[in-house]
Amino acid sequence: MSRFDLTGRVACVTGASSGIGRALATAFAAAGASVIGVARRSSALAEWVGEVKAAGGRAAGVQGDVAALTAIDEMAAQIAVPFGPPDILINAAGVNLRETAAEVSLDSWQATLDVNLSAPFFMARALVPAMREKGWGRVINIASLQSERAFPSGIAYGASKGGIAQLTRAMAEEWSRHGIACNAIAPGFFPTELTAPVFGNEETVARNAAQTCIGRNGVLEDLAGPAIFLASSASDYVTGQILYVDGGFTAK
Fold first, then answer.
1. How far is 95 from 61, CA to CA, in rounded Å?
2. What's the topology of domain 2-244?
3. Of 30, 20, 62, 65, whose CA–CA distance to 45 is shortest?
4. Cβ pair 205, 217 in contact under 8 A
5. Which tens digit of pLDDT belongs to each residue from 155-179?
6. Partner residues linked to 36 by β-bridges
7. What confidence tens digit (pLDDT) does each residue in 40-67 have?
8. Which residue from 204, 186, 118, 177 is spatially nearest to 146, judged by alpha carbons?
9. Rounded to the nearest 5 degrees, what angle is found at the Cα of 80, between the Cα atoms of 136 and 20?
10. pTM of this structure
């Protein structure tokens, strides 16, 4: 079980102020890692840092917008200040504008790709050199059911998440030989701020649950084990993979 222990590791989690990012950042701290959370909302980020510290964990926050791609190198330098350069990067920041093809504008298309696809690459590229020097590292991207399936009003989001699946494989090809495993988690339906429109409709919630093999939608705690596995030495021979944590939604 010691291979799942993150004690002594430093993890950076983007989108740490809410939803999946916050849940994973909290789980990594509980598993022993020192965690740097990155988010736009400073008050929510400070609240998360306080919660982790109150529970005996090690946490720090860096306020910033990952969509500001030209500022990512500067952000990476700030991320390394509290605990040193990260060993683990979780790209959890995301946006889903839920627009039909006719509604998508050039700005909304670009905003979706900047946050969901471009930021994970440039953030990883900025942090990987320090991992390479250590000969060990982890990059975990957040994919989606829409990395594989098409959903209504999801053309820009689906394109970005399809891209994340291929980006993850390309990252693995580029960096795994240096001890840096690159994988992605593709969550099913989980209640977060991004999925509030879905979970606000009881009929849709029931239909999505029925589509799973397990018979229920996810809760954020369901993501902790898979993420800790991919972030730890237990996954040393796992790279370039998309792990669907969806209750069997994609199996039916």
1. 20
2. Rossmann fold (3.40.50)
3. 62
4. yes
5. 999 999 999 999 999 999 999 999 9
6. 12, 60
7. 999 999 999 999 999 999 999 999 999 9
8. 186
9. 75
10. 0.95
Separation between Cα atoms, residue 128 and residue 134, nearest integer Å: 10
DSSP 211: H
Residues in the chain: 252
Task: Find the helix or strand (DSSP H, E) in which 62 lies.
Answer: strand 58-63
How far apart are the C-alpha atoms of 10 and 4, rounded to whole Å?
Answer: 14
Neighbours of 201 (CB within 10 A): 11
Active site (catalytic) residues:
157
Cβ–Cβ < 8 Å for 241, 183: yes
Rounded Cα distance, 194 and 92, in Å:
12
Q: Taking the CA of residue 90 as centre, how many other CA atoms within 13 Å lie in the half-sphere pointing to its CB?
A: 34
Between CA 153 and CA 159 the distance in angstroms is 12
Torsion of CA 79, 84, 87, 88, to 10 degrees: -30
For 163, the 3-state DSSP assignment is: helix
Question: Of 83, 100, 92, 39, which is closest to residue 65 (Cα–Cα)?
Answer: 39
Specify which residues 184 forms β-bridges with.
Answer: 141, 242
